[in-house]
Amino acid sequence: MTRRPTQRGAALLTALIIVTLIASLAAGMVWQQYRAVQIEAADRARAQSTWILQGALDWARLILQEDAKQNRNKAVDHLGEPWAVPLAEARLSTFLAADKTVATDDAGPEAFLSGSIEDAQSRYNLRGLLGGAKAPELELRVLERLCSQANAAPGTATVIAAGLRQAFPAAASGSGNGTGSGGASGPASDSGPLQPAGLDQLSWLGLDADTIKRLQPFVVLLPKATPVNLNTAPREVIAALFDGVDLATAERLVQARKAKPLQDVAADAAAYLPATALAQATTARVAVASSFFIVTGRLRLDERQLEQRSLIEREGLTMKVLARERINQLLDR
């Protein structure tokens, strides 16, 4: 008579254990399925974002190509051209509204696209510090003035010049002029720093992130030496580029080019720059046309934003993408 309650208790305990195991296995399976769905959705969103940003880059290349066709007779690039107009943030569905075969009333999350094309030659190219037995005095003064404008620490210009010349020994020694594509100025020395390919990599030379951020509006590191475009450069760069030119003089040139872009440096800039500055306005240092552009595309989806920055070199009607960088950001809500 005492075995039956014991058997019933053991059966109940066994049943509870089996139910617990089944519930645990079911929960694990549901969790794995949920994770698989999340991973698949993330991969799909990443692939879609990549294609959208690639389309934005192709669109920018087409605009630059059309601009080259318009300027075939006289190459002049200025801020009044279509490429210089930024694309304000807009719903991606508005770009698809013209296509009646695409459903634009999907209940899914909205995506927002924005972007811009910036003239890379509106900034001072640090490649000008290379060449010769030592850094050219004029170019070193230019960098010192720009560092002062950016409120960088004293001695920053010397650190940049010394670091670049150590990273590119062939160009610095004079055996190369720093104009090779992709930094093909020769390998760095065994004891020298790595060769930076862009401004962000100046941290390899010992610069902190805040200093690089301060200098970013004024300087750039391109694959080869380039002149500064006086039609697109900010007043700080123009003032730093010449000895004896202050911000007020540079501002007069900036305001004048809005009404009439410069067509020729020697003829048009003479009305705004002193004679000492015109003597330094060689074709290797200043120009009115550009070949390098920075294309930025931003795609905002929910709480995340994917930004892609591409460096494009324009050679005639050919657009070459030299570098591409993607930044995934989590936006604050």
TrEMBL record:
Extent of Gly residues compositional bias: 175-185
Subcellular location(s) per record: Cell inner membrane
Region (Disordered): 173-193
Domain T2SS protein K first SAM-like positions: 122-224
Alphabetized UniProt keyword annotations: Cell inner membrane, Cell membrane, Membrane, Transport
InterPro entries according to UniProt: GspK (IPR005628), Pilin-like (IPR045584), T2SSK_SAM-like_1st (IPR049031), T2SSK_SAM-like_2nd (IPR049179)
Domain of life where this protein originates: Bacteria
Chief place where the protein resides: membrane
Ranges where the T2SS protein K second SAM-like domain occurs: 228-268
Stored SUPFAM superfamilies: Pili subunits
Family under the similarity heading: Belongs to the GSP K family.
Family annotation (NCBIfam families): T2SS_GspK (NF037980)
PANTHER family the record matches: TYPE II SECRETION SYSTEM PROTEIN K, TYPE II SECRETION SYSTEM PROTEIN K-RELATED
Protein name as it appears in the record: Type II secretion system protein K
Organism: Pelomonas baiyunensis
